[in-house]
Amino acid sequence: MPVTDVQHDLDALTLTITADFAAPVERVWQVYADPRQLERVWGPPTYPATVVDHDLTPGGRVNYFMTSPEGEKYYGYWDVTGVSAPDRFTFDDGFALDETFAPNTELPVSHNVYDFTEVDGSTRARFVATYDSAEGLQQVLAMGVVEGASSAINQIDELLAS
């Protein structure tokens, strides 16, 4: 299992997940840079993702939806704020109302920093999501973000091995 640590800090408004992958940084970067690979790991195994638009450049947008086992679709987006390939990218991750990908202002947006660092030929990934309020962080924790994100990240090993 790649996920080695999960911390949430209501005072700092952060959720931090650390994972280790037996692959070079450049290979792990490709998981996020390629929409077809991203689909295989964004979302828990029982809620597979479909990436509709993928522009991983500053000012770009990634639109996606996840499909539940019952066929319900849950829409989301990334507004990409920074990219330093292959080491880091930053984005705002939000929930969308529907297939128009208009933001759902009833749900919180997280400001994310994904860092990839080489450690002895492998990659240590650090995923940090910061929320605007403790209530927003608590809301996504209650929705199961730790379990969902951890199970999604843990799928990356299988993709890297293929």
Automatic annotation (TrEMBL):
InterPro entries named among the record's database cross-references: ASHA1/2-like_C, START-like_dom_sf
Pfam families per the UniProt record, alphabetical: AHSA1 (PF08327)
Residues in Activator of Hsp90 ATPase homologue 1/2-like C-terminal domain copies: 22-160
Family: Belongs to the AHA1 family.
Protein name: SRPBCC domain-containing protein
